[in-house]
Description:
The complex is a heterodimer. Chain A is an all-alpha fold. Chain A contains 6 helices and 1 strand, in the order αβααααα. In chain B, the strands form 2 sheets. A 3-stranded antiparallel beta sheet of chain B has the order 2-4-3, with no helix packed on it. Chain B has a two-stranded antiparallel sheet with strand order 5-6. In chain B, β5 and β6 (about 590-595) form a beta hairpin. Chains A and B meet through α1, β1, α2 and α5 of A and β1, α6, α7, α8 and β4 of B.
Amino acid sequence: xxxxxxxxxxxxxxxxxxxxxxxxxxxxxxxxxxxxxxxxxxxxxxxxxxxxxxxxxxxxxxxxxxxxxxxxxxxxxxxxxxxxxxxxxxxxxxxxxxxxxxxxxxxxxxxxxxxxxxxxxxxxxxxxxxxxxxxxxxxxxxxxxxxxxxxxxxxxxxxxxxxxxxxxxxxxxxxxxxxxxxxxxxxxxxxxxxxxxxx
Amino acid sequence: xxxxxxxxxxxxxxxxxxxxxxxxxxxxxxxxxxxxxxxxxxxxxxxxxxxxxxxxxxxxxxxxxxxxxxxxxxxxxxxxxxxxxxxxxxxxxxxxxxxxxxxxxxxxxxxxxxxxxxxxxxxxxxxxxxxxxxxxxxxxxxxxxxxxxxxxxxxxxxxxxxxxxxxxxxxxxxxxxxxxxxxxxxxxxxxxxxxxxxxxxxxxxxxxxxxxxxxxxxxxxxxxxxxxxxxxxxxxxxxxxxxxxxxxxxxxxxxxxxxxxxxxxxxxxxxxxxxxxxxxxxxxxxxxxxxxxxxxxxxxxxxxxxxxxxxxxxxxxxxxxxxxxxxxxxxxxxxxxxxxxxxxxxxxxxxxxxxxxxxxxxxxxxxxxxxxxxxxxxxxxxxxxxxxxxxxxxxxxxxxxxxxxxxxxxxxxxxxxxxxxxxxxxxxxxxxxxxxxxxxxxxxxxxxxxxxxxxxxxxxxxxxxxxxxxxxxxxxxxxxxxxxxxxxxxxxxxxxxxxxxxxxxxxxxxxxxxxxxxxxxxxxxxxxxxxxxxxxxxxxxxxxxxxxxxxxxxxxxxxxxxxxxxxxxxxxxxxxxxxxxxxxxxxxxxxxxxxxxxxxxxxxxxxxxxxxxxxxxxxxxxxxxxxxxxxxxxxxxxxxxxxxxxxxxxxxxxxxxxxx
Lengths: 199, 660
């Protein structure tokens, strides 16, 4: 009981930032999604290490456009982060603007990536490399689209004035997912675009 | 104090006090937490106790279905050259038997126990994510139906539960059978994943204040370990099945030998998941024994820390042994040696647990009633199954035994011995908590002995059949092979075992109606779930207790030091559905968590998800897209920030009032 008495301190109530259940749940979700990409890349390297085909079939990948696209995706993460900082300092308009910019950059990534897909001379059924390339980048594209829907919802909720500097856990949690989508792209990009230069 | 409008301030000092049954506070709590009657309440409830019981009942029905499949196979194999089943029917039966027992029974039944018991053991009012919990159940149910729906049409999965390519590929298996399995497993994987996330976050956030990490029951350690493993391992099998489906229906080449694909990739992805899964379906069951056996030995478990650590160690090693399922595939000797050695090392943490149980019995004053018999019987079966496991970990011996009935014997000793026996014992043990009535003891002892004798009679001769060279998965055999006697004994044993299960079921039904009414703690057990009434009220604990030791109900006689737990006086928390969030290791009060009300969103999200997969199976493109949209809308509605959960700031909440 002695222990009980000393806890007579005020506690936050409800979804308070990183103390909320959602934050912990998102971390767990990211661990399992990260594992999924781990197994995807394992499959890529497992099959690549044993293949006797041209790998990639069209020769070494061009790095310019995918490189720029990578930077676009990463910069969108920065704006999501800025958006959250703006809520903390009660600059709600800047927060909304920053989130909107992040969404636009995310959409740019999708458009450029779709263009990349279009330019390939093969599809996912043509050869083993195509199966891997389109499945892995397709999985990532799916995550980007889910992430964009999340960002759009956050933008809507910010616009509706749901959040202020006291309660904004949804932005923290949704933002974390977007950062994950961006970080995992670095692994996909390194595996599919950079490692072919090593052998 | 008026309760018409709940206090929605952003910070407040949690009220302490007591709320005995019948007090105004207790009545208010019951109003807050009880599910509305009628079909709406039935579909929308998020009460972990209801969900836990649903898991238990559904998984048990799957156990019975898988059992009937096994009995039909045993009739076919009772004598040589029988014609009860065609080879194709036999293929579908053994495949569905494996799928049912491994995926639809063995983990879900343990999730049932953990869902029901965790918040009660941890001193919380619900799991961390009550709605996610409901979603996990609904998807499990729909995935089970999905996997079974093609069975009556004669198009059930038919390539064995580990479904090796190229046999499972389109070239050799043109029907919908394998597509049902592939899509059903991806669907089931969603259920397992969200369920596991819920357990992990619940452990880290929802323990009663004072219940530091070294004071949680072993069942919690077991389920935590299994859940962490699932979070890492499930994506592997979901991916494998998804790639197989792409190969079959989209024309990719992952497992397609002609175009550079590798069948062994399937085996790697499957067993990188499969072996951790084996431990996921036994570690929580071992936890049941570690918690319940000491009650009947009238002393605490010997070596709590050693058992908790060995649980974790088993799983950690379990991630590094998957190749022992692939010894005969022509991998390099170095790999075989490494994985053979790793597989043998696992016997060390397993032995730690076994010796802890034996020491607990040895040093205690055992009460020989039905649950004790099941737990003691489990220890014997675990040792037998463990020993045959060490034998197959030896690479040269495995070359000889691989794909024979010896392996079938081993895996049944492990899975029935370490899962089914603790589960039945656990139901005898917690039945009074679930339903407020005791189970019949005479019938209970009969059911144990019939099950135990039938099990050994049925499965021990399988070792012999395997050593005599009988391959698994053959639908019949020639009379001169020398396998007639062992097969007949096995078939007889399997029916005796089934009779034991039947006695258990009769006992459940009779006891539900006529069992003696019980007190909160009929076994005089030490852990927190027994501090609640039997059955527990909707809110679990009228006040969130404050915990001072590992055995809150045995403190007076054990006197372990560290003071007394406070069970009557504690945190009231009744401004809406609330419970206490605590810090991860020390369980200091950290936050007042607002818990969601009952909701239909989980049911509909589960239903629409299942329909997405149905659409994929039937190649209904537009329907699939429509269902994906329905899923997205359900999710958005679910996630919409709510003022009552303080996910956004309520209008009335002024800056000044926040620090009231």
